[in-house]
């Protein structure tokens, strides 16, 4: 008789047939949920009084403000909220803040050139296609598209009209092209600066790995983005962005305005447990130091590139105090790289079960944190990161043992 523990250890419980069935079931349920959600909505407003695509409304409103020559108003909460209400005919919709650097107005202007529904559809369809393309490039297997499309973080990102697809596509694409097209990887990393909190560890990894051409291309891309935003929107837009950062830090992050159960960082977990702000920052900084040290070691080592890439994707999620559950789309990048390495070299104990846990956790993290204050998403990410380092160490030991045996033969 096979015990459950033994099945978790070997991963034999996750057969190809079960994996396909689970994905199809979840994908079908997601489609039905969204169809019903839209069917019972009142135009672009759902039954709870929120806009369809919730957070996308801040992007669309910022785009309209830009078309009106008032881009800087997007950084003023009262003016941005008024613009969001105007999008929906003056209805009292919730406030969704605009926290992005000025060069992200390019996306806002593009989607705001269409009616709201069309802009939302264009945004989600284009970014989802980019996400699938990146994951398929990393793991070119028959089942990849189905597993990626059914990934629960996809459901969350679509529901919020958010940018998790774009973040994962840029990071995944950059890592995929890093060896073959280092300049292209640098451009993609530079574009990722629209979410600067995800770039904390990327320079450390690139420096440790000696990726100077990529670093140069990334820096040049960021400089070009800033220069273009100055030319198109004026220097005042950057002053407005800088002034808005205090609101973002204090209200959205430190006071938990977004909701502790939505934020998947160790900072949020510590704050939800009752710790004060300085303590939460100390804990987050301690984790960041551990991540930076271990990531530098890994990227300087001769470990497989897939493990380096998986660790960087995970570290990017863990390093920032402000990471939402829709950002967990980036977990797909880590899963794809780790799975590629394990499929080529064999899975070790508990790795298949861990990948399954990482795949399903976005579906559960918010609700579990909401009722129990257990940060399940954070815990799974930390376990995954430890497993990547463990795999690198075990692979290195196996290679050393193999070389020793060859030398003795």
Automatic annotation (TrEMBL):
The keyword ATP-binding does not apply. It is found in: Cell membrane. Keywords: Cell membrane, Membrane, Transferase, Transmembrane, Transmembrane helix. InterPro entries: GT87. GO terms for molecular function: hexosyltransferase activity. The chain crosses the membrane at residues 21-40, 103-132, 144-163, 183-208, 215-241, 281-299, 311-339, 359-388. The keyword rRNA-binding does not apply. It is a multi-pass membrane protein. GO terms for cellular component: plasma membrane. Belongs to the glycosyltransferase 87 family. This is DUF2029 domain-containing protein. It comes from the Bacteria.
């Amino acid at each position: 008789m096979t015990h459950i523990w033994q099945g978790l250890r070997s991963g034999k419980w996750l057969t190809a047939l079960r994996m396909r069935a689970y994905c199809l079931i979840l994908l079908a349920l997601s489609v039905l949920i969204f169809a019903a959600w839209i069917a019972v909505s009142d135009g672009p407003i759902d039954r709870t009084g929120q806009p369809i695509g919730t957070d996308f409304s801040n992007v669309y409103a910022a785009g309209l403000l830009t078309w009106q020559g008032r881009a800087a108003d997007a950084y003023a909460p009262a003016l941005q909220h008024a613009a969001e209400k105007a999008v929906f005919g003056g209805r009292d919709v919730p406030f969704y803040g605009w926290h992005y650097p000025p060069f992200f107005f390019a996306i806002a202007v593009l989607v705001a050139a269409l009616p709201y529904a069309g802009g939302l559809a264009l945004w989600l369809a284009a970014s989802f296609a980019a996400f699938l393309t990146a994951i398929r490039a990393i793991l070119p297997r028959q089942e990849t598209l189905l597993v990626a499309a059914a990934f629960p973080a996809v459901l969350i990102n679509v529901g919020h009209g958010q940018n998790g697809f774009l973040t994962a596509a840029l990071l995944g694409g950059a890592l995929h092209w890093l060896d073959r097209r280092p300049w292209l990887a640098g451009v993609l990393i530079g574009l990722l600066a629209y979410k600067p909190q995800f770039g904390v560890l990327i320079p450390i990894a690139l420096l440790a790995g000696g990726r100077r051409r990529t670093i140069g291309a990334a820096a040049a891309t960021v400089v070009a983005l800033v220069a273009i935003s100055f030319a198109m929107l004026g220097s005042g837009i950057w002053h407005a962005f800088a002034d808005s950062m205090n609101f973002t830090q204090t209200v959205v992050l430190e006071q938990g305005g977004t909701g502790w159960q939505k934020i998947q960082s160790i900072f949020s977990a510590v704050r939800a447990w009752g710790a004060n702000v300085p303590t939460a920052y100390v804990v987050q900084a301690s984790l960041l130091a551990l991540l930076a040290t271990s990531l530098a070691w890994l990227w300087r080592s001769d470990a497989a590139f897939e493990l380096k890439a998986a660790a960087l994707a995970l570290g990017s999620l863990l390093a920032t105090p402000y990471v939402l559950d829709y950002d967990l789309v980036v977990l797909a990048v880590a899963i794809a790289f780790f799975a590629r390495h394990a499929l080529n070299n064999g899975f070790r104990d508990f790795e298949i079960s861990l990948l399954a846990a990482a795949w399903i956790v976005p579906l559960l993290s918010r609700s579990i944190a909401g009722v129990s204050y257990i940060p399940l998403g954070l815990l799974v990410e930390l376990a995954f990161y430890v497993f990547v380092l463990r795999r690198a160490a075990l692979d290195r030991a196996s290679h050393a043992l193999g070389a020793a045996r060859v030398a003795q033969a």
